[in-house]
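Internal ticket #5521
Category: modeling
Description: The requester needs a full-assembly model to guide mutagenesis choices. All entity lines are attached below as received. Residue total reported by intake: 263.
Assigned to: D.W.
Attached entities:
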Amino acid sequence: MSEIKTDKLTGVGTAGSIVVTGEGNSTTTNLQQGLAKQWVYFDMASTTAVDSLNTSSLTDSGTGKFVVNINNDFNNTSYTVNYTGNGYASDTFPANVTCVAKISYETTTTTGLYDTISYGGSALVDSKYNYCTAHGDLA
Amino acid sequence: MANGKIKADTLEHSTAGSVDTQYVVSGSAKAWVNFNGTGTAAVNDSLSISSLVDNGTSVFTLTVAAAFANNQYSQVACLGHSNSNSGWGILEDTNVARTTTAVKIVSWNGDFAVNSMNWHGDLA
């Protein structure tokens, strides 16, 4: 089994572009672009992340709304954010919630933060479980 | 100058741990897209997306440039908007079978300006 020990991988032709051969051995994918650049698991009861990558802080901006602040920013606002959560504030599904949680992020994204919205069926709610992952190009 | 190639089973950082390269290959997103579904649908930025077809209100077909090895890839999606009271979500239209390169989706309750999607799976 071969092993490479290094703190940094850099492309030769283009520093920020390394290709990886895919599972089927016939196509390649771009390593840098395929990596998640930021992720966070948080509980809206606290502004301290449970765990994260490249997340500088969390801001509570109102019931059911949190701002995720990114440490190393993206180079444009066209990055992707995928956000999922449970849409309620505890481990137990409340009887008065009649539809699935609606989770989103606002369109007013910048390169250094995005807003999350948790809607629990009848109102905005501070969700217990919130998971976000962002892909795109770093600055 | 031809670019070099490294073959290895493990990458190790001096302080942050190591990772088997199978996770680098299989764990990387193989495609992602941020697109605007309002008006004439348009891709804002993407990895391995060859086309976006607007099939009418709320219905889109996305095609990846590098085909997957099978139809068992995962797809996650999220709408971005600031209206906290309307329905939202991106659903896969399972009335149309996905292929190794294309998937048809429905953006629930209208066209939205920001749509995020990621794909993971085995490339062909």
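Resolution: model delivered.
Comment from assignee: The first helix of chain B runs from residue 21 to 27.
Ticket closed.
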